[in-house]
Design a protein that fits this description.
- It contains eight helices and no strands.
- By secondary structure, the protein is an all-alpha fold.
- The longest helix is centred in the first third of the chain and has 102 residues.
- It is flat and about 195 Å long.
- The termini are far apart.
Length: 314
């Protein structure tokens, strides 16, 4: 019985301790939950504050962008207006110059003098600039027609006027095309002349005729691979090196040697053939008899021949 009572007391003590632990755990848990709630509320407030700040920043950026865009648009509009005015002035001047050219005065010479500068300006312009100028020029030249406010007579007169303008433009186009063809032919002729002059210049300097005609300047020709000095020989001298020069020299030397040998052979004393059976071979009928001294001179050789014949027979 005593043991059972002690066990019951121990169990009660353990239960009491557990209850206390559970109560403390609940208290700590409640505190943690409260702290979490407070942190979440702070986080939500910060998010709201940041969202408001971002809204303000975005709004200020948009306002700045709109302001810059307006300024850019205003600047572009001003530039376009100024450009349009300049082009209108240039177009009016051009029309006046064309009229002066057609009239045939001093204005044609002045315009011809300023033509190269205008051409250079046109070459430096981009496609976009040319398109803009074209649009502005067409807007100046082609004026809108108020057809509704015109009568039949006015319409006929306007049609005749437009027809005459078209005819004039076509004639101008044909003239410009012909001028272009003549200018191309002149340029071709000038290029040919320039090439001829460059060929002559190259020949004078001892270079290949096509050396200065090409796109790039000629290379500095060295005398040889090992002697680093410039080649001062002319083109003809260098050409003759590869035209069989050594063969020609050799042939000339052989010809000179042959001539010397032939002269030596022709200067030798003439020897007559020995008599054969009392007659000299090759003697013609009616030729005089050879004297005895010449016979002896000519007869020195036969004994040797006879000895050679005897040796052969043996």
């Amino acid at each position: 019985m005593a043991d059972a009572a002690e066990d019951a007391k121990q169990k009660e003590a353990l239960n009491g301790q557990l209850k206390e632990y559970i109560a403390e755990w609940r208290k700590t848990r409640e505190k943690e939950e409260e702290e979490l709630k407070k942190l979440k509320e702070k986080q939500a407030k910060r998010k709201e504050i940041r969202a408001e700040q971002e809204k303000k920043l975005n709004q200020s950026k948009k306002e700045e962008e709109e302001k810059l865009r307006k300024e850019d648009n205003e600047k572009k509009a001003k530039e376009a207006e100024e450009k349009k005015k300049r082009l209108e002035e240039a177009e009016t001047k051009r029309q006046e110059m064309l009229e002066a050219q057609k009239a045939g005065g001093d204005g044609g010479k002045k315009s011809a003098a300023g033509a190269p500068q205008d051409a250079r300006r046109e070459m430096t312009k981009t496609k976009e600039q040319l398109e803009e100028e074209k649009k502005i020029a067409l807007s100046i030249r082609i004026k809108p027609l108020e057809v509704e406010a015109m009568d039949s007579d006015e319409l006929k007169a306007k049609a005749n006027e437009i027809f005459n303008i078209i005819v004039q433009l076509e004639t101008d186009k044909y003239d410009y095309e012909q001028r272009k063809l003549t200018q191309e032919l002149d340029l071709k002729e000038l290029k040919e002349r320039q090439k001829a002059q460059l060929r002559q210049k190259a020949l004078k300097k001892g270079l290949d005729p096509e050396a200065l005609v090409g796109k790039y300047p000629p290379m500095i020709r060295m005398y040889s691979k090992y002697e680093r000095r410039t080649d001062t020989r002319t083109y003809d001298d260098r050409k003759k090196l590869y035209e069989g020069g050594w063969e020609v020299i050799r042939a000339e030397s052989l010809d000179a040697i042959w001539k010397e040998k032939y002269e030596e052979w022709s200067k030798r004393p003439s020897k007559r053939l020995p008599k054969w059976f009392g007659e000299r071979p090759g003697k013609k009928a009616g030729d005089p008899e050879t004297p005895e001294g010449e016979e002896d001179a000519g007869g020195d050789a036969p004994p040797v021949e006879e000895e050679e014949e005897e040796e052969e027979e043996e």
